[in-house]
Amino acid sequence: MKRERYLNFALMALLLFVPLLAWLLDEPFLITLTTRAVIFAIAGVGLNLALGFGGLVSFGHAAFFGLGGYAMGILAHHAQTYTPLMEWPLVIEGTKSMLVVWPVAILTGALAALAIGALSLRTSGVYFIMITLAFGQMLFYFTISWSAYGGEDGLSIYVRNSFPGLNTMDPIQYFAICYGLLLLVLFGVSRVSGSAFGLMLRAAKQNEERVQAVGQTPYRLYLIAFTISGAITGLAGALFADLNRFVSPTMLSWQVSGEIMVFVILGGVGRVYGPVAGAALFILLEHTLGGLSEYWHVYLGAILLGVVLFARGGLYGLLAGREVAHD
Amino acid sequence: MSWILLVEQTLNGLQFGVMLFLMAAGLTLIFGVMGLINLAHGSLYMVGAFAAAAVAGATGSFGLALAASLTAAALAGVVIETTVIRRLYDRDHLDQVLATFALILIFSEGTRWLFGSFPLFLDRPEFLAGTVSLPFGIEYSKYRLSLIGVGLAVAAGLFWMIAKTRIGIQIRAGENDREMIGALGVDISKLYTLVFALGAALAGLAGALIGAIQSVQVGMGEPVLILAFVVIVIGGIGSIQGALVGAILVGVTDTLGSFLLPKVFSLFLAPAAATSVGSSLASMAIYILMAGVLLVRPKGLFGGA
C-alpha cells in the first residue's frame, strides 16, 4: 500500500504548509483554524483506535474530550486564583505548566475510559453504542450542575498554559506544539496497530471466537484499546481547552461525540491517518460552507450523506483504495 | 411535603412517560423489524410539531393541526425511507449512525430556513384548558390528563395491531426472518416503508401534543431522541411492551427524581448544598437507571436472548 503512505505524507505536509504560509502572510486566523483541525485530528485518531481497530462504536467520546478539557481548566483555575486544589491529606497546588497538565488530562481520560469501558463492554452492538452515549450524557449533566467550576457557564482561563522555551500565546508556536503532539500520537498509534496487540484487536473485531480459541480474552483487548483511546482523546480535550482558553459542558455534549465520529468515518475507518484527513476536511467544509451560506449545515449534511452512500471507506477509501494497509 | 403534590408529580411523570412511548415505539419497531438505528427520529418529532404549529396558526383548529402533524411526519418518513434509509438496511450501525446524523443536520437547518430561528407557539384547544378535579381534592391539568389518555390509547392500539392484524403478523415475521416472509409473497420494501411511516407518524403526533406544552423550536427533537433511546435500551430493543414499561419508568424517574432528590438530601445537608447535589443527581438519574439495568440485564428488561 505505497499509495497510502504517499497520501499520509502529503496530508501531514499540507497541514504543516498551510499555517507556515499563513504565518508568512500574517494571517493568524488561518493558523488557529489549522490548529483546531490538528487538535480534532488527535481526538479522531484516539477514537479510531477503539472504533476503527476494535469495532467499538463509542458514542460517548465527548466525555473524555471534555474531561481532558476540565482537567486543564481546573488546574489552571486554581493556579490563577492562587487557591490550592486540595489541602488534605496533602496540599496540591494548581498549575499552568503544560508538562503537568497533559499527563493529568491523559490520566483523567484513561481512568474514565477504563471505568466506563469496564461497564459498557459487558454489552455489545447497539446496546454498547447507547450505553456509551448514556455515560457521556451523565457526565455532561454532571458538569452542568458542577457549580464549583462554573456549572453551565464554564471556566475561563485568561492566559494559555506555559511550555518551557515557547510563547504559547503566539499562534504559530501553539500550532507547533499541537502538530508535534499529533505526530507523536500518530507514531504511537501506528506502533500499537502494528504490534501483536493491534493484530489481536483487529482479529477480535472480525471473529471473537477464534481469538478466544487461541487463548486471548476479547474483553481485555477491547478494554485496553478503549482506555488508550480515552487517554488520547483526553489529551486532545486539554489542547482544545487551551486553544480557546475556555472549557464548558458543551465539550461533553453528544453532538461533539457525533462530530468526532464524523472525523473518523469521513477520513476512513481503521486507517491510522484517516481521522486526520477527516478532521481537516471537516474544518475546511465548516469554514468554506459557513462563508457561503447561513444554512451551511444543510450542505454539510448532504456531503456527509453522499460520503456514506457512495464513498464507502471515506476519503482514504476513495484515494488510496478500499483495502486497509497491513504494515 | 404534601402528598397531593406527590400525586401530581407522579401524574406528570406518567404523562411524560406515555409521550416518550410514542417516540420510542417507532424507534423500537424500526430497529426490531429493519435493524436500523435512526438518529433522525427526533427530526420527525420536530416536523410534526412545526406542521401542527403552522396549521394551527393558519386555521385555529387543534384537530386540523394534529392531522397535519401526522400527515407531515408520515410523508417526511416516506420520503427519507425511499431516498436514503432504504440504502442503509444492509450496512453496519456505523454507516446508519452517520447517515442519520447527516439527516438531522439537513432537517434542522431546513426547518430553520423555512420557519426562522424564533420558537413558535401552539395553543392547547379551548375545551382542554384549565384543570379537572380528581378524587381526594386533587386538581390536575385537563390537557395533561388527556395526553395520558391518548398515549395509553395509542399503546393499546399498537398492541392490538401487532397481535391481531395481518400487518402486525407481517411485522413480527419480518423481525424474525426477512427472507422467509419475502418468499411467502410479502412485499418487504413496501412493508418497511409502511412501518417507517407509522413510526414517523407516532413521533410527529408526540411532537404536536408536546408542542402545546413547550415551545416549538429547531433542535427540540434531539433531547427527546436521546431519552427515547434510553427508553428502548432499558425496555429491550424491538419490544413494544418493553418500550411502554421503559418509557413510564424513565418518565416517572425523571419527574420524581427532580422533585424528591433535593428534598431527600435536605434531610442531612445544608439547603444550598442539598439543592445542588439533589438536582445534579436528578439530571443524571435516568442514565444511572439505564446503566444499572444494562449491568444486570445486558439486553434490557424485555430483550430477547
From TrEMBL, chain A:
Keywords: Cell membrane, Membrane, Transmembrane, Transmembrane helix. InterPro entries: ABC_transp_permease (IPR001851), LivM-like (IPR043428). It comes from the Bacteria. It is a multi-pass membrane protein. PANTHER family: ABC TRANSPORTER ATP-BINDING PROTEIN, HIGH-AFFINITY BRANCHED-CHAIN AMINO ACID TRANSPORT SYSTEM PERMEASE. One of its GO terms (cellular component) is plasma membrane. Pfam families: BPD_transp_2. It comes from Shimia isoporae. One of its GO terms (molecular function) is branched-chain amino acid transmembrane transporter activity. It is found in: Cell membrane. The chain crosses the membrane at residues 7-25, 37-57, 62-79, 99-119, 126-149, 172-201, 221-240, 260-285, 297-319. Its main location: membrane. This is Amino acid/amide ABC transporter membrane protein 2 (HAAT family). The lineage of its organism: Bacteria, Pseudomonadati, Pseudomonadota, Alphaproteobacteria, Rhodobacterales.
UniProtKB/TrEMBL annotation, chain B:
GO terms for cellular component: plasma membrane. Belongs to the binding-protein-dependent transport system permease family. LivHM subfamily. It is found in: Cell membrane. GO terms for molecular function: transmembrane transporter activity. Keywords: Amino-acid transport, Cell membrane, Membrane, Transmembrane, Transmembrane helix, Transport. It comes from Shimia isoporae. GO terms for biological process: amino acid transport. This is Amino acid/amide ABC transporter membrane protein 1 (HAAT family). InterPro entries: ABC_transp_permease (IPR001851), BCAA_transport_permease (IPR052157). The chain crosses the membrane at residues 16-37, 44-60, 66-85, 97-115, 143-163, 191-213, 225-252, 264-290. The keyword Transmembrane helix applies. It is a multi-pass membrane protein.
